Here is the input.
Amino acid sequence: MTDVAARAERTHEPLTDQFLGVELSVADAPAYYAELRAKGRLLWNASQGFWVAPHHAEVMAVSTDPATFRSGQGILTFEIGAEYATPPTMMHTDPPEHTRYRSLVQPAFGRRVVRTLDESVRAAAEALVADLPVGEPVDVVAPLAVPLPVQVIAQLLGLPEERWDDVWEWSEASIPGTDTYADPERRAALHDEMLQELLRLVGQARTNPTDDVISQLVGVEVDGDRLTDDEMTMFLNQLLVAGNETTRNTISGGLVALAENPDQWQRLVEDRSLVPGAVEEILRWTTAVIYFMRTATRDVVLGGEQVLAGDPVVMLYASANLDPEQFGPDAAEFRIDRAPNHHVAFGFGAHFCLGAALARLEVAAVLDALLDRGVTRLELAGPVGRSRSNIIAGVTEAPMVLHTS
Here is the structure.
């Protein structure tokens, strides 16, 4: 049977784009993802021609087999069939190219480096929390969730305070589906502005290195190999966008979850040792990156289905992180003492997020700062706004009252 005929014979129930989170309310999402998982281990989207993996086990299987499921043909559904002369991000590479990149950038993002940032990240979180009013409504997105990761990324890049707003704009303009910059010309202009500034910073680091992450990256050499200027710019673009958008929405989504589950915040008030577990549960619950995609390099059976070479496979992280097979019958509940908590909010395998330790630090810093401020309860004070991106689970506004008594 030819590949074309094999694909034509697939009779799976058609799926809509809703599976990616579009038009799903947070209240509806767990039930919808449960419905997807009940339909099968692997689901075929006939209208767009890709498989959907809604279960944790299949997401892990794809994540840990880069030889069979490659990233180089696109990691988002609108990239199906794309061919890149040079990778737009490190996430679009496969071993051995990806292994080379990891060896050259990992030294700048190891746990030792993150530990050196602990004091400054916590100080930034404390300052932002100190400025929040208590006992009256405040949207925690704009004054807290947005500026903290922006400040951290700007610090990593060596950008002065007057450029912090630019970092936010560049990041927003780089996320498909966000409403902030709907004008494609404005998006393109901001993207070009970002690339030019990153190139300038790379050149500056080569001639006058300091202690920022760019200077560390340009100084890394492995067996005589170094990152080129174009490769540096590609990686810094990924760092700026991914390190900002995902962490911001994890913080805001996590605070919403704690406001919706006041008993869980009370447990933190009573026992600060639960903060690390709360961070992991927030990561699982918010799943800032809804999905990534891989493309099969050969015919393979996955989840009991015949996947053909060239088939795209979507790893639906948002569903996998609610899978009862992995997390038990209370998987659809927010519980800060969940253990074990093998979530895939950072992906897994070769492409495990380089910034995972830094993201964990930022979320923990916010929780600790709120507890230090004496916040005893988080109360929602209005509707929570959500972005319409089907890639990033964005929280655009989260009005709440911080109670201290």
Q: What stands out?
A: Residues 150 and 168 are 6 Å apart (CA to CA). DSSP finds 16 helices and twelve strands in the chain.
